[in-house]
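note to self: dont lose this again. the chain is below, predicted strucutre after it. 567 aa total, dont forget to put it in the shared folder this time
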Amino acid sequence: MSAGQEVAGTPSRFARHVPGLTLLRHYQRSWIQPDLAAGLILAAILVPQGMAYAELAGLPAVTGLYTTVACLVGYAIMGPSRTLVLGPDSAVSPLILAATLPLLGASGDPATAIALAGMLALLVGAIEIGLGVAKLGFVADLLSKEVQVGYLNGLGITIIVSQLPKLCGFSTDAEGFFAQTGAFVSDLDTANGITLALGATTLLVLQVLPRMSQKLPAILVAIVGATVVSAVFDLTAQGVSRVGALPQGLPRPVLPWTQLSDLGPLLIAAVGITIVSLTDTIATSTSFAARLGEEVDPDQEMIGVGTANLAAGLFQGFAVSSSASRTAVAEQSKSKSQLTSLVGAAVVVLLLLFFSSLLADLPQTVLAAVIMAAALSLIDVPVLRHYWQVRRSALVLSVVASLAVIVLGVINGIVVAISLSILLFFRRQWWPHGEVLGRTPSGVWHALHDREEAREVPGVVVFRWEAPLSFANVGIFRQQMRSLARRDGVEWIVLQCEAVTDIDVTAADMLEQLTAELRSRGVHLVLAEMRTRLSEQMRRYGLLRTVDKDHLYTSIEAAVTAIQGSR
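---
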């Protein structure tokens, strides 16, 4: 039974709008033990990642814990997935930093940064809920796969460069990839050897241990080990910076606010964060739901994630997304429901209320290592090799998206990435593929360049158009048809229409004019393999008065046979 269904199998209005509460109403006792165990294991990851991603967003580490609690509770109520885990994210945090840093100015006041990040989370939540209510789930598809890969690759590289000074025990004031790289190289002689050794060891553990054992949480081993070493050997006295005791208690809900002039820049960033977050969230949610034999409503998913962001923004948090790694941990730990996330949130609450000094000795370099490990997971080199083999234009687009993030910055990079995806869509609509077909000895029609044995019928050109006919591509279609008509000895053009699923008004006018033009040149247009819908559209447009009804055929072979019989 999916999260949004009643026992009888018919979704009620309440189930559709509050799927989390509906799931809890039908909670099974047999789920309690695995959910509790999975929640405790999940908490071991939520705490260090929440703190690390908060610092990646330019915020105090404790805000990552506030964010974690608020978003987990919000999604558990409104989210449709039984297993999805939300929280601070390595792909979203740099966007938050890039959006808030210019608005902070020289002061860098933490309270103002928290307010800006909170307002940004509210804007993201409002956009996501609005998209979900309006059933605009397709917005999550605005980033094509190759552009998304390129964006994440560029993001991973920029994150790693930004964390290198912290890993080595010093800081720089440089902004931007090249400035940060230059500052790191020039200040490398100020690195603290013990800090670097501890950070590098942590990074090594995070990379190697998961390959040796899936049952032992690498991040828990690294955090506990580094904290114990720091406390026992008093590494603070040797120049190793530590996190320090967290503020005790929980934040009260408050509406974050700074200045009216901040809303414009924050809104632009919110759109980018929304697209990045929802693209990843819906893909993650759908893939994990499929393993359980369930389906997730993408519109309700938007509402669930939007609610999580609203909750985070009201409790001194920042924008969140899903996490494939944390969701995988929950699934591997036999999680059965969102109670797993609630247990994880409860553990974080206990930490804030009673054990706020537990991680005081955690070295800052360890958080940098956690962030860098997450950044490395964003980088996907094998898929670039795959693009090189299957479609090199996809590789070029992916690399351009990466360079945009690295050279122009994270915010501008995501704008370029979204623009590239949209341009790619329009480009494929403007210049769709068309093929001249030939008949093989076995009687099957194939593209000429695909089969050497394919041969054209004298005086006849069989042309396959592989897209709907619309205002965007009528120019290239007309150009290709005219080019075919100018070939020596051509008297007939057979247009294979199987892939032509639609024809708009502009294309209908063009087809009427083109048919008359070809006829004046002594070339006849024949249509084959039209879908019923297309045939009905042509009838409504009056095109059947221009295109002879006797020149409509159910197959290419039938059209060619009729042409040869008429000679």
